[in-house]
Structures are given as structure tokens and as C-alpha cells.
Write a structure and sequence with these properties.
Layout (H helix, E strand, L loop, with lengths): L1 H12 L6 E10 L11 E2 L1 E14 L4 E6 L8 E4 L13 H12 L8 E7 L9 H17 L5 H14 L8 H7 L5 E6 L4 E6 L5 E7 L11 H15 L13 H7 L6 H25 L3 H17 L5 H12 L4 E7 L6 E7 L3 H16 L4 E5 L6 E2 L1
Parallel strand pairs: 4-6
Antiparallel strand pairs: 1-3, 1-13, 2-7, 3-6, 4-5, 7-8, 9-11, 9-12, 10-11
Length: about 375
Amino acid sequence: MKELILKKFEEVFGDSKDTKAYFAPGRVNLIGEHTDYNGGHVFPCALTIGTYGVARKRNDNKLRFYSMNFEKLGVIESSLEDLVPSKEADWTNYPKGVMWAFGERGMKVPCGMDLLLNGNIPNGSGLSSSASVEVLTGFILRDFFGFDVTNQDLALIGQYSENHFNKVNCGIMDQFAISMGKKNNAIFLDTADLSYEYAPIVLEGAKIVIACSNKKRGLGDSKYNERRSECETALAELQQVVKINSLGDLDENTFEKFASIIKSDVRRRRAKHAVYENQRTIRAVRALKANDVAEFGRLMNASHVSLRDDYEVTGIELDTLVEEAWKLEGVIGSRMTGAGFGGCTVSIVKDEAIDTFIEKVGAAYKSKIGYAADFYVVEVGDGPCIL
């Protein structure tokens, strides 16, 4: 890949002298969905697929961006004086947002750059192509200009830029999983205080298979922000009777004791998902540590049911992929992953069943939905690096 992106950089920008090549992974969340902005736990891992980049400093303030994933857009030009979001800037709003966020923290980017990206994460799949671009940009800025930031800071800066520059009210999980990724480990992260531990992913005789629904979704204009505000309102109602900072502070019994204080049935179900999903995630990590992969799979299945019925973020595409997976021998667990409304499912599938899984789930999906899904057998990878 390095040779490919350097060659393309030369084609697009004239030559590739003084360049450096970088990589930041995508991520998949194994369990703990829509808990990250509710003060709960998440359990994501970095992948070996992600975003590759070649960058070079300029001796002026000009920014020139090119993506091999959006070649029709050509080179998109901007400058350090123009770090404001715009429709015309398209995907470059993500790297520009990170440069802006560094400036907001008192680390002004001192000169322009040429940046070429090539991602092998499917766009709009819910595997965090945008967070991957954000972490990659932050990693490049730190390497180029010696900014005093940790990988954890890169996650926070990426989230800040997404929230305040791109106006998507995302939690910290995506950027954290990407910047802090560790090979063959998932990250058990408490989003309330950012305490975390690595948990080895030991799936003897099984692999993680991602199915991409190919239904595109835009996070900002989907119902993501609506779900978030429903949970915030439910939390405010609960806080009238119980001393909590977030829905993640509750266990199932305490929630059931006070649930009737939430005035709307819809908000009650949203809050129930946040509370129960957090507890499921804690139990799932415990199961994995005890080598009980079957229990981990059962909790994945229960997570999907809750996302479908209580949180209502799945839709016919994701439900079809998951329900077809559940029918098959050798599938340990399957659920939607990411924000929902399209995107991907994640399944743990026994090695000998993978080919059948892809064939049967793929055929059933195409017959019901009318277009094909894509399948990726993935490995758990490291965080960002220089190539």
C-alpha cells in the first residue's frame, strides 16, 4: 500500500520528495452500543483495515487534499486561514476540523501541507472512516510539528473537532479505539472517566466477520442526535429521584425501581437500552476473560435485540443480516455495530462456517433487500503508526 500511495502522490502533486507515509486503523465495536454518550462501557477494537496517508509540509499556508476514495472530487484546496466547515469542502472537513481543534488548544498549525489519503474501510459503513481520518490527521500534525499530545489526547481532539466543527454529537469511543488500538486486544473503556483496560481477544477456531449492509447513512442527519437528546431528557427525569451523573451509573434493578418517573414510554425504552447494554458489556468482558466465548456471543445477540426493540436504530437491512446469521450453525454471536440505520454487523463465526456464512447470509440479504452486502474477515490491529 505504501508504494501505491506514494506513486499516486507523485501523480497528483508532481513529486513525492520530503513526504512521509502514515496509517490509522478503523474500528469495530464488539458490544456496548449507544452507551458511550450515556456514561457507560464500550468494548471496541482497532482493525487492520483503515486509512493510509501521505503528507508533506509546504512553505506557505495552502492546504491541498486528495482522496483516492473520492477521485472525482480531484484536489480540494483550502488554507490555514480558512478553517471553517463548508459543504464544498466535503470530506476535507474532517482533517480541517482537526487542524482547527489543535488551534483551539493553543497549538496553531504553522504551515500548510499536501495530504493524500486512501482508505480501505468501506465509506459510510459504520467502521469509523471519519474518526480514522481525524486520528490520522492528529498523528501527522504531532509528528510534523512536535505538538506535545498523547494518543489519548489525539482521541479527545478528534472528538472535539467532530462535535464542534462537523456538528456531529458523537461520543469518545471511535477516536479512542483508533488512537489507543492494540493488536489482538479490545479496549474495555469506561466512557464516564476514560479509565480503560486491554482485554485479549482469543477466539480459538473462530474469527470476526463484518457484514457491510451497503446502505449509506449520514450520521449528522440521521436520528443519532435525536436518540442522544431522548436519553438526556430521561436522565434529567431520573435525577429528580436518584443521585446519578449518567445512565451508566444505574444497574438493571435500580433502573426498574425508578423507571416509572420517566414520563414517556419511548424515552423509558431508550434509557432501558442504555442501562441494560452497559451491564451486558461488563458481563461480556467478564465472559471473554473466563474464555466463555459462547456467553459473549449470547450477550451480542441480546444487544442486537435491545438495539432493535428498545433503541430502534437497526432497520430492515441490519436486522436481515443478523437474523440470517442467527439461523446458521457455527455463528457464536451476531449484532449490528456502530450508530445503526445502515452500516455493518459484527459476527463471531467458527472458521469452518465462514464460507457458508458469507454465501448464505449474502444470498438471503440480496434476495430480501435487492442489492448485495459485502463481507470482511478482519483481524484486530494496532493504533496509528508511521509506515
